[in-house]
Design brief:
Strand content: 15-25%
Shape: globular
Low-confidence stretches: none
Helix content: 40-55%
Number of helices: 7
Structural class: alpha/beta
Number of strands: 6
Order of helices and strands: EHEHEHEHEHEHH
Radius of gyration: 15 Å
Mean pLDDT: 97
Distance between the termini: 30 Å
Strand order of the largest sheet: 1-2-3
Oligomer: single chain
C-alpha cells in the first residue's frame, strides 16, 4: 500500500489507524507513507512504523522523486477521504497501474470504478461508508484479488486506459 498526501482531517487517515493493524497482522502486506500535516496523523503513522517496523515506513515531509516512486512502486494506493472535491493522486495511481482504494466520495467516486470479480470490470476498490470496517473491507477485498495475476493485470490495464484529460471531458 502507498500513501502520498497532506496529512489532514479531510483525508480520513484515522480510518487507517483503526483498520491497518489488523490487516497487517493477517497479511504480509506493507505500507509506505509520504506526507506531513496535522500532528495527530504524523504521530499515528510514526506509531504504525514503530509498531510494525518491517511493514510500515513513514517519511515525514515531501520529496518529489520519492512521491513518484511510491505512486509507481505500490501495488495499491490508499485514499480513504472524508470528502475529496477532485483528487489527483487516484488519477496518478491509475496511470501508473497502481490500484486505488478509495472512499466513494467526490472526485474519487467520479474516477474510480469498483472492481467486479464476475465481469472483471472496474479500476479499483471503492467503499461507501466512512468507517474502519468499510476501509478494512476494501483492503481485504484488494488483497484477495492481488494473488490472481490475470485479474490484477486486467485491473491495471483498465486504470491505465482511463483518460481524464480536457479533450475527453
Amino acid at each position: 500500500f502507498g500513501i502520498v498526501s497532506r496529512l489532514a482531517h479531510q483525508k480520513g487517515f484515522e480510518l487507517i489507524g483503526e483498520a491497518l493493524p489488523g490487516v497487517l497482522q493477517r497479511h504480509p502486506a506493507r505500507l509506505v507513507v509520504l506526507g506531513s500535516g496535522e500532528g495527530q496523523y504524523e504521530e499515528m503513522f510514526a506509531w504504525l512504523q514503530r509498531t510494525f517496523p518491517h511493514q510500515v515506513a513513514f517519511y515525514r515531509g515531501y520529496n518529489d522523486g520519492l512521491s513518484h516512486l511510491i505512486e509507481a512502486g505500490s501495488d495499491m494506493f490508499l485514499m480513504p477521504s472524508r470528502y475529496e472535491p477532485c483528487g489527483l493522486n487516484q488519477m496518478y495511481s491509475l496511470r501508473y497501474g497502481t490500484i486505488p482504494i478509495v472512499r466513494n466520495t467526490g472526485g474519487l467516486a467520479d474516477t474510480v470504478r469498483l472492481y467486479e470479480p464476475v465481469s472483471g470490470e472496474g479500476t479499483g476498490f471503492v467503499f461507501d461508508h466512512f468507517n474502519a470496517d468499510g476501509l478494512r473491507w476494501a483492503m481485504e477485498f484488494a488483497l484477495s484479488v492481488w494473488p490472481d495475476k490475470k485479474a490484477w493485470r486486467k485491473l491495471q490495464r483498465a486504470g491505465m486506459a482511463c483518460d481524464y484529460s480536457w479533450e475527453h471531458q
